[in-house]
Amino acid sequence: MQEIYCFPYASIKHLAVRSLTLITFMSKSPSHKPIEIKISTVVAVSAIVHGADIAALDAALHEMTGGVADFFEDDLAVLDVADLQAGEAPVDWAALVALLKKYRLNAVAVRNAAPDMHQAILAQGLSLDSGKTRDDAPARDGPTAAAQSGAEAQVMVIDTPVRAGQRIYARGCDLIISAVVNNGAEIIADGSIHVYSSLYGRALAGASGNPQARIFALAMEPELVSIAGVYRTFEDGFPPEMSKGPSQIRLAGDRIEINSVKPVTPVNRS
């Protein structure tokens, strides 16, 4: 069993990234549009870089992935360099992009880069991201915030099995699945995940950074789970005492915690 959440030189999180899909425009014909522009949402990995030493980053990623070649599956990656200290050696962007590629991460953008980094970043074909997101809004606490959150909540419901190679992302809401989630499938939600069947694939709740999100399933033997970017994998198998009955996964501090969910005994009201 391997638990992954933070390392001295790099940490990995999933996040939702808005993307603009461009298809080359060649015709104005309403019936035939070889070019369309649409706003879509994709899931990317956020690699939080704490140092520019490529060898140290390589070692941290190797430890993080446990040497598993397909730990990442050609995911898109946004590099967050806000923690790089002023006066450090310049980042070798070409080497960093190549290193991530080695671990099947495809760098697409850099977040929180200092102005003197911009030219070198753009030269590698990477985009610049200011790092400002909806998560920057002040947190609201107390019953009022909870009531407002509940009023605004939405849910994505899936009634069919999620098969190997499929990825489902519930953006800005909880995800409810009433069928099996097979090995090789990936389910992601900004809120909590509820599987009213067996969960065998990868499940990532709180993808936008919500540490209160949870994962529930009637039975589970997942390949990987994540809450707000904190990962846990199960190469040695899921705890057998938890796999055959209802369970929940939540974040306790900086660790993934697994608990059984005891069914409620019906009350005889006669």
Fold blueprint:
Blueprint: E1 2-4, E2 10-22, E3 37-49, H1 54-65, E4 75-80, H2 93-102, E5 105-111, H3 118-123, E6 127-129, H4 142-152, E7 155-158, E8 167-170, E9 174-177, E10 186-189, E11 193-199, E12 202-205, E13 215-220, E14 224-227, E15 230-233, H5 240-243, E16 247-252, E17 255-260
Structure description:
The protein has 270 residues and is of the alpha/beta class. The chain folds into 2 domains: 123 residues, Alpha-Beta Plaits; 115 residues, Pectate Lyase C-like (3 Solenoid), CATH 2.160.20.70. Strands 1-15-14-12-10-8 form a 6-stranded mixed β-sheet, with no helix packed on it. A hairpin with a 2-residue loop joins strand 14 and strand 15. The longest helix has 12 residues. The chain is globular and about 70 Å long. It starts with a strand and ends in a 10-residue tail after the last strand. 31% of the residues are buried.
Distance between the termini: 48 Å
Order of strands, main sheet, comes to 1-15-14-12-10-8
**Major beta-sheet overview:** 6 strands, mixed
- Fraction of residues in helix: 10-25%
Compact summary:
The protein is α/β, with parallel strands linked by helices and 270 residues long. It is built from five helices and 17 strands.
Features of the shown structure:
5 helices, six-stranded mixed beta sheet, globular, 17 strands, 270 residues, Pectate Lyase C-like, alpha/beta, single chain, 2 domains, Alpha-Beta Plaits
